[in-house]
């Protein structure tokens, strides 16, 4: 499994809420931050988006936004426009003049992710993904969002499962477009790393063979670089050292396994690349802040009995 697919698989996006947003004339709305991903696609017209403490940016027709964790923001027809407080909901909303055909249309939504791996969003993905229609073809994203909106509005058999798959596709498509067409100044993280061929090869190897006891020298050789050049390039683009990245990924896999059911610590240790349950438990406590058994008891009914071994 490639790195993008592997990350999305562990995040398990689900429970989508999506709605149309329209406006006419002078309007502005303010939303508080919430710890869930949010997305939006401008269908018609344009608007200005201002994140807390940052200069406003213009969103044009066809532009797509994805927030892995949604910050507080203001959206209006002009920079600095007066804003009313908005509240997340499931029904279509209209701002500004209530009479007349709207001159602004947007499809917006949010969804849930697996909370135990939410930290992956902060350490691996950009805080904001803005795919500009002027620079990238966003028609595929538009089709996916249209399907999400359609499925949200219909109580049909199999709907939740279809929505979950559509959300996975939406995230991968957005991250893939960001990887290919994003700005060179992208913040350190998985997307920036995947843009550098040598770093991308090392990332693919670590995701495909996370059980292996990789060294920096081995990864550098596979990437076709000297050890020092590779280590510096990986740190600059991903934001951490190669072996630290591998350790974080192993811990994400371990948390997922612990919370999905009863699992032997000896077996889990071997599966993710540790020589013993003791070595794994020590590493887990260092990264997560608690013992594996304690973590397993804290998440979900499937893990309520705790791991054995």
Number of helices: 12
Structural class by sheet pairing and helices: alpha+beta
**How far is the N terminus from the C terminus?**
29 Å
Sequence of secondary-structure elements: HEEEEEEEEEEHEHHHHHHHHHH
Helix coverage percent of residues? 40-55%
Form type: globular
User: What's the architecture of the largest domain, going by CATH?
Assistant: Sandwich
**Major sheet: order of its strands?**
9-1-10-3-6-11
Rounded to the nearest angstrom, the radius of gyration is 22 Å
Organism: Neoroseomonas lacus
Keywords: DNA-binding, Transcription, Transcription regulation
Domain HTH araC/xylS-type: 200-298
Protein name: AraC family transcriptional regulator
Please describe what this structure looks like.
Keywords: DNA-binding, Transcription, Transcription regulation. The chain is an alpha+beta fold. It has three domains: 3-181, Jelly Rolls; 196-239, Orthogonal Bundle (Arc Repressor Mutant, subunit A); 244-303, Arc Repressor Mutant, subunit A, CATH 1.10.10.60. The chain has twelve helices and eleven strands. It has a six-stranded mixed beta sheet, with helices on one face. A five-stranded mixed beta sheet has the order 5-4-7-2-8, with no helix packed on it. A hairpin with a 5-residue loop joins β4 and β5. α10 (265-272) crosses α11. The chain starts with a helix and ends in an 11-residue tail after the last helix.
């Amino acid at each position: 499994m490639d790195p993008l697919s592997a990350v999305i698989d562990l995040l398990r996006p689900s429970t989508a809420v999506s709605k149309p947003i329209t406006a006419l004339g002078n309007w502005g709305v303010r939303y508080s931050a919430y710890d869930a991903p949010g997305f939006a696609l401008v269908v018609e017209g344009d608007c200005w988006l201002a994140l807390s403490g940052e200069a406003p940016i213009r969103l044009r027709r066809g532009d797509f936004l994805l927030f892995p964790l949604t910050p507080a923001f203001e959206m209006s027809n002009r920079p600095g426009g007066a804003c009313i407080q908005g509240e997340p909901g499931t029904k279509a909303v209209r701002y500004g003049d209530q009479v007349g055909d709207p001159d602004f249309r947007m499809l917006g939504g949010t969804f849930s992710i697996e909370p135990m791996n939410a930290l992956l969003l902060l350490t691996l993905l950009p805080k904001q993904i803005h795919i500009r229609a002027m620079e990238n073809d966003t028609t595929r994203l538009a089709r996916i969002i249209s399907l999400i909106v359609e499925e949200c509005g219909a109580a049909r058999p199999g709907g939740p499962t279809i929505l979950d798959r559509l959300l996975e596709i939406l995230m991968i498509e957005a991250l893939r477009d960001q990887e290919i067409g994003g700005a060179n100044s992208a913040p350190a993280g998985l997307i920036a790393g995947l843009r550098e061929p040598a770093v991308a090869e090392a990332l693919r190897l670590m995701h495909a063979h996370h059980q292996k006891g990789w060294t920096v020298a081995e990864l550098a050789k596979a990437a076709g670089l000297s050890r020092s050049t590779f280590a510096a390039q990986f740190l600059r683009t991903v934001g951490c050292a190669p072996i630290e990245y591998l350790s974080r990924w192993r811990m994400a896999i371990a948390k997922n396994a612990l919370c999905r059911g009863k699992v032997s610590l000896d077996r889990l240790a071997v599966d993710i690349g540790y020589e013993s349950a003791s070595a794994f438990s020590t590493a887990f406590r260092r990264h997560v802040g608690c013992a594996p058994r304690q973590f397993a008891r804290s998440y979900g009914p499937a893990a309520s009995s705790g791991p054995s071994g």
